[in-house]
Structure formats: structure tokens, C-alpha cells
Amino acid sequence: MSQQQPGPEEVAEALRRGQAPSEVLAEPAGGEAPPLQEPDVEPPAPPEPSVPPAVPVSAEGVTVHGVGPGLLAARDQVLRAAAADGVPAALTAKDATLWGPEATPEASVRLGWLDLPRTSAELLPRLRTLRDELRADGLDRVVLAGMGGSSLAPEVITRTAGVKLVVLDSTDPHTVRAALTNLDRTVVVVASKSGSTVETDSHRRAFEEAFRAAGLSEAEAARRFVAVTDPGSPLANLAEAADYRATVLADPAVGGRYSALSAFGLVPSALAGADVAALLDTAQALGPALARPDDNPGLAFGAALGGAGLAGHDKVVVADNGSGMVGFGDWAEQLLAESTGKDGKGLLPVVVEGVDAPGFAEASDVHLVALGELPPGHNGTAVAGPLGAQFLAWEYATAVAGRALGINPFDQPNVQESKDNTNRLLAGHAQGAAPPRFVDDAVEVHGTMDALADAGTLAEAVEALLAVVPPGGYLAVLAYLDRVGESRATQLRPALAARLARPVTFGWGPRYLHSTGQYHKGGPRVGAFLLVTGAVTDDVPVPGRPYTFGQLQAAQALGDLRALAGRGRPVLHLHLRDRGTGLHQLLAVAGEE
């Protein structure tokens, strides 16, 4: 009897079960064995099967759609292994052994994020009451002082909801001074998991001093603060002693970058006016699907990320294409980079401006990820769905990808070095910046790369940096500038990406230290770095500390530069003597102006 290929419906069902396209098309119909060949006759080579269209994986409004035979084959290999090992049920049951014995101690205290769609609902009545109290007192301007996981999710939530939240995650004195306004209607959410984050502690001190200078008593000023932190942290103790208006304790079993649906994501967003109940509803609806091996978009996406990474597609280029979310890529950037960038491997998120932007193009080491829909003619992965469910799906997928890559997705072993360098500089125990190699108009050029030996202009220095980006490498632009007043610095990314034809990332300092900084130092040694600082014209003191915000910012930039250079990473440091003129000059050299 002749073999028949399965029909389209059978193919679709088999793909949903996690089988590779090649397996589906090679399976004999009706379970019949293929006819025996004569022993002395060479069997004919089977025809190359055509790959059927990929079947989207959907549950509760979240859809993951992969396109491209190579990416799908890599994904399906991880999917089959995960299903065979019982990963979906084990992960939702919070099995800390999934990532190996070395990761088990950390994972055992970092899986609380799986419960957040349910447990965080307990916060909702309290947050509604607190928001009403603040509005009744005329406090309708919410400032969030937080870094990394304490600020990125609230920014996405409030921007997507169209409500105003002032996010202060910079030590740039111009940014800080701009935030210290409209104090008569301001409440400050101080968010820090450890309770000792230097940037957030400095912001808190600045606002306390500003409220006192505005005529508020110590008790009145304390009523302008809401603390979000872990139980027993220095911030929790301080807030209790000062009698802050509210202290919300977060689940200590949730790491910062997995905390979008915890108090860190919900408190500032709710106080600013976002509907955080809807976030939890969509995430909770997705939860049951994450325990099963089939029709599980979180598993499919994690397998796509991990499988592509194992196949060499370790640059995850993320662009929005009709998702309805605003700024989601910046949150996903921290999640992927800090979770996977260690032990010399990892996934580098490259957030670009859109699907038409330079850098959103297929390459041998690139995995295109579209938030919404993949544009026609592109191979990659599209992820769509409501914001709350997306937070949970991406966290789950990152944990799955980490297992496939053989890393612990819950630690960040290389973050502390830059912090230690910064502290030594602030304490005067380390030498400051060396004199520049040369000055080109408004820009000082610093660096120790051999490639700079023949450079005598800014254009030559930038060209020398681009020339040392290796095949399979990337360029990271790190800007210690005013994120609001000097936002056009972001134009450096597409301009340099158009010239380099390699992935180019952009990060605001010191914000990126809590995000991609882990990958820069712990990931593959294929990065080159353009670090940009600027002269301070209106510095702001940090009350109770022997340094200013400008000095803190400079120490953070130099501290990270030394951590990168100490690992042999090529770094070009450009200092703008005049920020406006220097940035214009740099953008012109990059090709943007």
C-alpha cells in the first residue's frame, strides 16, 4: 500500500504537539510501516519535503508565531526536550532544580513571580484607597525614584495606559533638577528591592531636602513618600522610623527584573492612574496554559529564544509593530540581558525604533522578534497579546531559554564590579579620568585602544572604534547624559547601525548598569563600546553625602569604563565639553546630522 502524506489539519495538530515539520511530513499515514527494501538495493533518496506554514501557538490572547524553517527547527528541538523533561509542569510548580545543581539555591528563592498574578491582587484595594487619599490631598504628580526592575515596568505600564508618571532613574544633575519641581502636588515613590540602591537613596535625599526647603515640616515631608521595598531592608526600616505615608513590602522571592506584576510594578502605576487590575487579570488567565506542553505560548517563545541562541542567533533584535504597548522593548531588554548574559554566553537584546529601522534585518547571528506582527518577508518570531499577560509570558520564556542555554537566569554575577569601582572613586581611593588623547572642538577623546594611535579627529576616532567591532560582534552606545533634555542622543543608534551593518544598542547611563551591563561584562567577549559623558553646568548636591549628582554620575561612568577595559573590551570615551555643541558634532560624525 502506498504512503500518504498527512493533510493540512493533521500537520497543524502535530506541530502544536511540538513535532518538527520534517517529522510530521515523514510520518507514515495510518501507522503503516514503509515497504521493505531489498538488502542489496540502495534505497532511493526521499524527496526534500516542503515546510508547511508555521502554526501560531495561542492561549488566552497571547500568540507566538514563528516564521523560517531554520528557526522553527531550532525551536522545535528545544520544545521536544522540554516536553520530554516535563518542564512546563515543573516550572509552574516552582521546581528549582530545573537549571542544574549550581543554580538551585538561587532559583529556590526566585520563583515567586509565578504566583504574582494571584497574590498581587491582594494589593488592589489598598492601592485604590491610597490613590484616592493622595488625590484628596492635591497630590496628583507621581515621581518614581527607582532603577532597573523598580522603574522599567512602571514606565511601560503608564505609557501604555496614557497616564503621567515621572520616572527618575538617572543621576544626571540636569535630569534630577528638572524632577525637583511642582513640589506642592508631588508624591514620591521610592522603590528599591535592596533598600540601599545608591541612585535611589540619592534621589530620596534630594527630595527630602527639597520638601524641607519648600517649607514642609519633617512630618509633612514624610507624608509625601511611599516606599516599595523588601521586608527588613534599610529602606523599610527608614520608612517606618520616618512614618512615611505608606510602605508596601514586596515578595522577597521575586528578583527585580521579574517584578513587573509585583508591588514594584503596580504601586507607582496605580498611583499614577493606570488600571493595574486588568494587568493581573490577563496574566492570571494565561497562567494555566503555562503548565501544559501544548498550546503554551510561553513555552513556544522560550524555545524559540533558546533554540535560536543555541543555533548561533544570539542577537535578539526587538521592534514594535502594532503591539499597542509603549516602550516594552526597554523592559524586555533588562529581562533578557541580565538573565542570560553570563558565563561567556547569552542573548543580547537589541531594541530598535521599528521594523523599518537600521538593524531590523536578518543575519547569521540575528533573531528578529516583533512585538505585534512580523512584517511580510521576514523570518523570526512575533509575540502579541495584552500587556499583563506579555509580562508573564516573557518572564516564563526567559526561564525556559535560560535552561536551554545552560545558564542560571536568576543571578547577575558581574553587576557588582562597576558598583565597587564607583564607590572607590567616590571615596577618593582610585584615580580619576586620565587626560584626553586629544580634543576636537567641543569633544574630548579618551581611550586606550591601540586602534586610536593614528586618530587625530573625532571622525577618525569613531571610525577606529567601528573597525574593531568583530564579526559576530556588536556596538553598545552608553550615554551618561540628560535623558529628557538630550533625548536626541538616541539618534546615535540608528545612525551608527546604518554604517556598521552590525547590531548596535543604546543605553542611558547609569540605567543600563541595571540592565545590559551584566551582559556587557559577563556575556560573549564580542562587544565594543562608545561611552559618552558631558560637562555639568548646574550640579545638584546629594544631601548628607560628600559628593554631588554630577560627581556620582562621573564616577559611575568611569567605574564601568574600567570594568569593561579591564576585561579587554574596546572602549572609546567621548566627553562633551559643551553638551549641545558636542552632541551636534557627534551626531554629524555618526551620519545623523
Question: What is this entry, summarized?
Answer:
The protein is of the alpha/beta class.
User: Can you list the strand order of the major beta sheet?
Assistant: 1-2-11-10-8-9
Unreliable runs, pLDDT <50, ≥5 residues? 1-53
Distance between the termini: 70 Å
The number of distinct helices, counting runs of at least 4 residues, comes to 23
Q: Give the CA-based shape.
A: globular
Estimate percent helicity.
Answer: 25-40%
Gyration radius, in Å: 25 Å
How would you name the oligomeric state of the polypeptide chains in this document?
A: single chain
Mean pLDDT: 91
Report the count of strand segments.
17
The computed structural class is alpha/beta
Relative strand content: 15-25%
User: Biggest sheet: strands, sense, closure?
Assistant: 6 strands, mixed
Q: What keyword list fits this structure?
A:
alpha/beta; 593 residues; six-stranded mixed beta sheet; 23 helices; disordered N terminus
Question: Would you kindly provide a written description of the structure presented here, covering whatever features stand out?
Answer:
- By secondary structure, the protein is α/β, with parallel strands linked by helices.
- It contains 23 helices and 17 strands.
- The chain has helices at 8-16, 21-26, 69-84, 87-92, 104-107, 116-119, 124-136, 152-161, 173-179, 198-213, 218-222, 234-242, 263-272, 276-286, 297-310, 328-340, 387-405, 416-426, 458-467, 492-500, 517-522, 549-565, 579-590, and strands at 57-59, 62-67, 141-145, 166-168, 186-192, 225-229, 246-249, 315-321, 348-351, 366-372, 380-384, 438-440, 443-446, 474-480, 504-508, 527-534, 571-576.
- The protein has a six-stranded mixed β-sheet with strand order 1-2-11-10-8-9, covered by helices on one side.
- It is globular, with a radius of gyration of 25 Å.
- 55% of the residues are buried.
